[in-house]
Known about the structure:
This protein is α+β, with helices and mostly antiparallel strands and 79 residues long. It is 16% helix and 41% strand. It has a six-stranded antiparallel beta sheet. The protein starts with a strand and ends with a strand.
Amino acid sequence: MEVNLIDMKPGQNGVIHEIQGGPGFTEKLAKIGLRKGKKIRKISSIFRHGPVTVSIDNFQVAIGYGKAIRIIVEVENDA
C-alpha cells in the first residue's frame, strides 16, 4: 500500500517509492539519505502539521510537514 509519510503510522516500515518534487528538492533529501528505494521507519509525528521523525540508515531525522507530505512510501507492515 502506498501512502505519504504523513499518513504512515508510528512504527511502520516502508520503502520510499516516489518523491514528488523537482531536482532541487530531491537533491536536498538525498543529502540526508532520503531517496527512492531506501528503507525507512516512521518514529513519530507531531499533531497539526508538525515535523515527522523517521529512522534511516541507523540515524533519525526530522522532516517538515510540507516535505513529508511529498514523500510516497510503500508500507511493508502495519504496527
